[in-house]
Amino acid sequence: MAKSLLNGPEFQFDLLSKILENKEGIVDTELILESYCQFLLLEGIKEPEVVFDEYLTLIKKFNKTLTQEDALVFIKFINIHFSNEKYNLALTLCNFLENKIVKMSDIPSIEYALLYYWKANILNYTNRKHQSAFYANKALSILHNPNAVNANVVNASGLQRVKGEMQSIINATYSNKYFAINENNSDTGNNLQSYYEKPNEPRRSEIVKVKYLNGKNIVKTGKYKFFEKDIKSGKCKIVS
User: Does this model's pTM top 0.85?
Assistant: First the structure.
């Protein structure tokens, strides 16, 4: 594998560049995909978004099961798109990675928390507050889970900043008593309503997801104003 051949950063850059330049003559798909992954994790590469698009195309073509390093590549480009205010692109990558996570390890890891962190931020910036709070809670559930794996992806101060931002999103969305999750709490907070008693009413233009309580489990997404009457009459409830 390419990874076992890499020694220093300059050698790594040159080797991966050569592999990708000559990928048409390489039949080992796994080697090509791993080379893309390792190359995209480097800093200072030319036209990174073009290279990422090639990598994403191959992932879709071969239906690759993502590794934690692949997840870090996605998170890196979610960050890039978010910083460039390309929120739809960033959210598309979040959704793709989230769908792939089910095929990854069942052990929670910081990469998962970072995915939910970025998804919460994107939804918050695009005025989908309740969905944002839902993903902020998912991020906190992992960050406060003592069994979560952190392969030195984020240092202690970075984790504290992430926790603070997620709690701020939740506190801005939900009122009344907030039971903060902490390292000594055995409940990892999978049930949002167990932590937040009464949500503030969404703005009428805010996007919400609702579930109808007629026994058919119908779930719909749209602006709050379209569901307001049914929510207040008890026909459905907001789920995220």
Answer: no
